[in-house]
Amino acid sequence: MNPKISVIVPAYNEENYLSACLTSLKKQQFSGGYEIIVVDNNSVDKTAQIARDFGCKVIFELKKGAGATRQAGCAVSLGEIIAFTDADTVVPENWLSTIATEFEKDKNLAAFGGLYFLSSGSIFTRLVVSFFVYPAHFLDKLYNNGWNLSGANFAVRKTCFLKTGGFNVNLQINEEYDISQRIRKFGKVKLAPYFLVKTSGRGYEYGVISWFFRYGPITFSRIVLRRHNFNKLKPIRKEGHFCQIILEPFLIGLVILLIFVSSPPAFAKAQSGVAFVHKKIVFTDQQIEKGGYKLKVAVVNGAERLRYKQR
């Protein structure tokens, strides 16, 4: 009897992450039957052996890239639903049961997924991702007239998936966005922001800076220009870059400092407050007019102090 769900896990040199991912998949509270397919993208470490030790189906794909790797797993899948996660991701115990329930209650559902939070990386990067990953997906939805799902946390109905022709095997990134848009022709695509998995922060090697200088242009091209041809751009696969440890906090502090020093220096309080004013005062007890107010100021130890103001 075929399993209800096939779980595809693309993997390339994932010996440091794969065990945690497969452990979470083995602990699923799901009685419908499922298979785990690990697609080894020509690893040179113990990735394939770890997958076999967990009793997973292991296949090899020589063509580099997530598109080709996911497609290879789909080609041998037996389930009526195909779920996807990444080797550096840990899923909750109700992951498969939630996926199955969503497809059972809506027969027109072609694809379903959720979001993620980071398990590593700088504290600032983790906070930014936690608070802004959903607004970013929602903005993406507005521009693309539908949800684009996250590769670490989504599933498709196999009958709808096959009608699309499968993944674009030439894409190394954004393959999940590409399939999300093409599968809309055959059913609904739903994203549930409450449906979360935990993934590593290695994709944000340079912290939030990664988004501005790497993912920013990619996102702009995908959302605004509707282009996905980034087959020459490889995913980031490093943890703990010095930018997250040193450069990111420095740049954040610099931005805060610039905002502070560039803000208007005069915020006078009525009658009795103390504030600096824009105009340099050279005489004591000089009265000036600013913003419709008459300001009485005095120079005290080289600083301009507001004595009082009136209309």
Keywords summarizing the entry:
three-stranded antiparallel beta sheet; Spore Coat Polysaccharide Biosynthesis Protein SpsA, Chain A; 311 residues; 2 domains; 9 helices; single chain; 36% helix; alpha/beta; eight-stranded mixed beta sheet
Give a description of the structure:
The protein is an alpha/beta fold and 311 residues long. The protein folds into two domains: 5-201, Spore Coat Polysaccharide Biosynthesis Protein SpsA, Chain A (Alpha-Beta Complex); 267-311, no CATH class. The chain is 36% helix and 23% strand. It has nine helices and eleven strands. It has helices at residues 18-26, 47-53, 66-75, 95-105, 123-144, 158-164, 175-183, 208-223, 242-262, and strands spanning 5-11, 34-40, 57-60, 81-84, 89-90, 109-118, 154-157, 188-199, 286-290, 293-300, 303-310. The strands form two sheets. It has an eight-stranded mixed sheet with strand order 3-2-1-4-7-6-8-5, with helices on both faces. Strands 9-10-11 form a three-stranded antiparallel sheet, with no helix packed on it. β10 and β11 (303-310) form a beta hairpin. The longest helix is centred in the middle third of the chain and has 22 residues, at 123-144. It is globular, with a radius of gyration of 27 Å. The chain starts with a strand and ends with a strand. The model is unreliable at 266-284 (pLDDT under 50).
